[in-house]
Design a protein that fits this description.
Elements (H helix, E strand, L loop, with lengths): L4 H4 L14 H13 L3 H11 L5 H9 L3
């Protein structure tokens, strides 16, 4: 949960957010990712929202300020 990651990552949907400097929570999240086979779910969810972070989306948002 550092920088802008909490604004981009949806915890449990597109990744796991863990507090900084907490290796045990990071380890738990890593184990959960593999144990629960989250790769496909996270990948599909990321594909659904990735356009929000494209240059095309950004330029349209800027142009809409008129």
């Amino acid at each position: 949960t550092v920088g802008c990651l909490p604004e981009i990552i949806k915890d449990g949907e597109t990744g796991f957010l863990v507090p900084p400097k907490n290796p045990s929570v990071l380890a738990e999240a890593t184990i959960r990712y593999f144990k629960d086979n989250k790769k496909e779910e996270f990948t599909n969810n990321i594909k659904k929202i990735k356009n929000r972070f494209s240059w095309k989306y950004l330029t349209k948002a800027i142009e809409s300020f008129d």
